[in-house]
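tool_call: predict_structure(chain=1)
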Amino acid sequence: MNQLDQLKKFTTVVADSGDFTSLQQYSPTDSTTNPSLIYSASQQPQYHPLLEDAVRYGKAKGKNSLSQSLDKLFVNFGLEILKIVPGRVSTEVDARLSFDVEGSIAKALHLISLYETSGIDRKRILIKLASTWEGILAARELEKEGIHCNMTLLFSLPQAIACAEAKATLISPFVGRILDWFKKYDNIAAYPPTEDPGVKSVTLIYNYYKKFGYKTQIMGASFRNKEEILELAGCDLLTIAPSLLEELKQNSSPVHRKLNPEKAQSAPLTKIAVDEKAFRYLLNEDAMATEKLSEGIRNFVKDIVKLETILQQRLVK
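tool_result:
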C-alpha cells in the first residue's frame, strides 16, 4: 500500500489545486482553491471555456459585470471540481474584503447563490475567509445561516481559538509558509521534520482543539515537502498539492499516525480567552503570524487583479 493510501486511513485527503483534470488519479475527498490557484489554472487553454462562460455571465448581468464575471469564474472551477470529488470544494471570498465584515458576508451569500442556482447544495461548499478578526466575525454569522466556512491564512493559535469560538467549520493553518518565515528569520536551510515550525504550530492547534472539545476541524495546508505531511498524519484533513500527492503515491514506506485525540488529552495546555482585544494583541505579538497574514492577503489580491485584467479584456470585446 502506498503512502497516500496509508495516510487516508488516518486523515481526509484534500487536493490543493485549481487544475481539476489532475485530481482524479489521487481520489481526494475534497478540493480547495484560492485566487492564486485559479489564476494559474486559467492560463491553461483547456480552462478557457470556463473563462468565456464567466464573461458571458458578466455581460448578461450588465451592472458590475467584472465583479459578476469574477465570482462566476470561481464558481465555474468549483462546479467542475465537484464533478470529480465526492465531498466539498472551498471557494474563496475576495481577499480585498478581508477587513470588511458586511462585504465578506454579502460576497459569500452571492457565491452560495451561484452554486445553488447550479443545483449544488450549500453543504458541499466551504466559503474561504481570511482569519482576520473581521473574517472571523463574518464566519460566525455565515455559520448561523448553514454556510460552512474554511478559515484560511491562519498562522497562530490565537487565530485558531477565535475561529473555533466562532464555530467555523474548518481552519487551514499554513504549514509551509510558517516554515518559510522561520528559515529566513533563523537563517537556516532546513529543520528536522519533528522540529519544523509549521508542523509544531499545527500540532499545537490540533492538541488544543481536541483537549478542549472544539468541533472545528483542522486542515493542514501549504506544504513544502512530504515529510511535513507525514508528521501530521492523523490531522482531521490535509490539503495537498498534486506534486506531493504523487510523491506519496510513489512511496510505500510505512506511515504512522502522529496526531490523535487521545494523546491530545494529556497535552500540558491551558485554555486561553480570546476576545477582540486579546486577538489583536496576541497576533501583533507574533511577528511571523502578523507578517504572513498580511503578505498572504496582498498576494491573493495581486492574483485577483490579474484575473480581473484577463476578464476585463474579454468583457470589452
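agent: The longest helix spans residues 287-315. Proceeding to next step.
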